[in-house]
Design goal:
isomerase; Trigger factor, domain 2; 511 residues; five-stranded antiparallel beta sheet; alpha+beta
């Protein structure tokens, strides 16, 4: 019989879901796990022993008696007999129109037709389908969704069906590894938090920033003219190739190399201090090496502080003829502005709103950091890894938007090796984010914070509209889950802000 037929028949008789979805949301329940518990299914007599391994891990030892295996064995005989259409037999479950349709072919005929290995595998899968839900019911309130993994080798399980015609020969046992929500202990009173934050700006810094934004917008209206008779001056627009090596090791720094990188030296905020000064005077076609110390806030921690040598090749050089700041260009600088003064006022207003949002964000971060500091709980490994991967994706998106990185460079940075390196080097930061999440979710539960149906629906609609605005595909179920998580996090922050003592210091560099 062709393997395709065997596969489809096997799939047809083992198509029930392995385990039901559990209601416990990740990191939500806080019930402790007892060291050893035995649970017996009344009908099937499947027994489960539960062992706490620590670090949010539990092992379930599942024993399936031969009576249950016989049920699985019989189900596989009937399933294959009906699906495989064995020559000389026309078996139908429950009987058929013709006499003899209800007669099951001999087990030896079915097993020989299907193949012993294929049949034994199907029996094991059937046993798992019957017993895993029973086992998972013992941790339904605390298990992290989809965290269960069968630890016993499949080939070892198949040995249970090594009797005559693949019949079961004795009890079958296997183990399941499961991650559970952590048990949380508070080392301080979260109702009496005190935090101090530094304001990101004031009237003076907002005015300076607004002026810078205005000048950059005006420069964007300029006309580019090719420069051939001089070297680069600050204010020129350049197209260049660049790469970098670690000065100490001589190895290339991943994620830096770019071709035809476009830079406005008069307005761009390039997070590479010294690069613009280092290329002043360069002419088209010239190559120059520039020493740069990688900034401490570079997205990839393992690159921060590295002494690097940048190699820059100037491909094209343009002079930007910036127009005069007149009312005629006001609406191009800021939408709906009628005059230059109006444009400047709107930019300043927008900057003040940005500063206020940044202060709110800084306050929120200080509060959740203070909350996380008094939250003592083990961290589930799967949640740490998933969070880390999400954080890295977000960093790549920010770099692409903020620095104008090409998709080629983004793909280099998103390689599995780079992601794994991030998970390793930034583990402390990732764990802090997870601990924040755990603490906020526990606060939400303890204070019985409520979310109305209207609030939840509005959050879902807003999230859906944002995805559709950017033409991004999304999973509806995950979108709903994320909307719930987002509104719960926001309400937890509102509670913290209302109950904590917050001191705001003036911006850095001001008295």
């Amino acid at each position: 019989m062709a393997s395709a037929v065997m596969s489809s028949a096997r799939a047809a008789i083992t198509s029930r879901p392995i385990a039901p979805k559990r209601g416990a949301k990740p990191l939500r329940a806080v019930r402790s796990v007892h060291p050893t518990v035995t649970v017996a299914a009344a009908a099937d007599e499947v027994t489960v022993k539960q062992h706490d391994l620590g670090d949010c891990k539990v092992r379930l030892e599942v024993a399936v008696p031969i009576s249950v295996q016989n049920e699985a064995y019989q189900a596989c005989l009937e399933g294959f007999a009906e699906k495989c259409q064995i020559p000389g037999f026309n078996y139908k479950k429950g009987g058929g129109r013709k006499k003899g349709d209800a007669k099951l072919p001999p087990a030896s005929v079915i097993v020989n037709f299907v193949g012993a290995k294929e049949f034994a595998s199907a029996c094991v899968e059937e046993v798992l389908q019957m017993s895993i839900p029973v086992a998972m019911e013992t941790v339904a309130a605390t298990a992290l969704q989809d965290s269960e993994r069968i630890e016993t080798a499949f080939d070892d399980l198949k040995k249970a069906f090594s009797g005559s015609d693949c019949a079961p020969i004795g009890d079958l046992t296997y183990s399941i590894g499961v991650e559970v929500v952590p048990t949380i202990k508070w080392t301080g009173d979260y109702r009496k938090l005190k935090v101090t934050v530094q304001s990101p700006g004031d009237d003076v810094t907002d005015a300076a920033e607004a002026e810078s934004i205005f000048n950059a917008a005006l420069r964007n209206l300029g006309t580019m003219r090719v420069v051939a008779d001089r070297g680069l001056e600050v204010g020129d627009q350049v197209v260049m190739d660049l790469s970098a090596v670690n000065k100490a090791t001589g190895e290339e720094i991943e994620g830096i190399k770019q071709e035809k990188f476009n830079l406005d030296t008069g307005a761009a905020r390039l997070n590479l201090p010294g690069l613009v000064d280092g290329i002043v005077g360069m002419k088209t076609g010239e190559t120059r090496e520039v020493p740069i110390t990688m900034p401490d806030d570079w997205p990839q921690a393992f690159i921060r502080g590295v002494e690097a040598t940048f190699t820059v090749t100037l491909r094209e050089l343009f002079q930007n003829d910036v127009p005069e700041a007149t009312d005629a260009v006001a609406s191009k600088i800021f939408p709906d502005a009628s005059t230059i003064d109006d444009a400047k006022a709107k930019i300043l207003e927008s900057q003040k709103a940005t500063t206020a949002a940044m202060l709110e964000q800084a306050t929120n971060e200080a509060l959740v950091d203070a909350l996380a500091a008094i939250c003592d709980a083990p961290l589930p490994a799967s949640i740490v890894e998933e969070t880390g991967r999400q954080m890295y994706s977000q960093k790549m998106l920010e770099m692409q938007v903020g620095s104008g990185l090409s998709m080629e460079v983004v793909n280099q940075l998103a390689s599995p090796e780079m992601v794994e390196k991030f998970l390793e080097t930034d583990r402390k930061e990732i764990e802090l984010v997870v601990r924040r999440t755990i603490a906020c979710e526990e606060l939400f539960r303890l204070e019985n914070i409520q979310v109305s149906e209207e609030e939840f629906k509005a959050e879902v609609v807003a999230a859906k509209e944002e995805f559709e605005r950017y033409g991004t595909e999304y999973d509806v179920q995950r979108l709903v889950e994320q909307a719930g998580e987002a509104i719960e996090a926001r309400k937890s922050m509102e509670w913290l802000r209302a109950h904590a003592e917050v001191t705001v210091l003036p911006p850095a560099g001001t008295a």
